[in-house]
Design a protein that fits this description.
With 222 residues, the chain is α/β, with parallel strands linked by helices. It has two domains: 6-18 and 87-221, 3-Layer(aba) Sandwich (Rossmann fold), CATH 3.40.50; 19-84, DNA polymerase, domain 1 (Orthogonal Bundle). 45% of the residues lie in helices and 10% in strands. It is built from nine helices and six strands, in the order βαααααβαβαβαββα. The protein has a six-stranded parallel beta sheet, with helices on both faces. Strand 4, helix 8 (172-180) and strand 5 form a beta-alpha-beta unit. Helix 3 (50-61) crosses helix 4 (67-84) and helix 4 (67-84) packs parallel to helix 6.
Amino acid sequence: MTQLGAALFDMDGVLFDSEPIHEKIFIEFAAELGFVCPPDEYRQLIGTSSVSQWRLMKDKYGLNATPQELSDAKMEHYKTFLGATKGLLPIPGIVSLLDDLQMQNIPFALASSNTTDVIEATLSAIGLNTMLTTRVGGNDVPQAKPAPDIFLLAAEKLGVSPADCVVIEDSTNGVLAAKNAGMRCIGFDNPNSPGQELSKADVRLSSLDNLTLNKIQSLIFN
């Protein structure tokens, strides 16, 4: 029987219910730039890197700044929000799952399309910066999700074969990246990440509460 070798976690929508915040800030920043980004249009961008999102917006709306400049400006708004807001918490079930994995010596890592500075700001805001020390960000790899680069680098950092990894994802692009990496995938149906196609995930869950190593093992590998 195959055993779980490592767990890889997306950040937005999995560790932290940040998608509503990202959506609000993205749409407000778009308005500052002089165009309207409807929620449905933004939600098609969930799960890919911020630079990729703004590359599409630049091409569609003829924006003058570079995608990197636009991404940096939007993320500064986001980090300001995180720094000014108290009481932000991880998604229910995440802390107990990380504790369980740690107690049973199963390595884990964060694998997010965000840049490392945004990852650090987010983990600090929700109190997980000392627990999730192995991290891969979008600026660490050549290609963003749905390319497999982020997950493959995370597995390499942990010294675990991709085939023995389980990814927890809430986005279409994230699930595709996990499968493109040759990994198993738990699709988290987060109601605040609407419109995501998770059918290619091995298992779909509507909650991460009470998720344990044993449950992952029975869902994925048995």
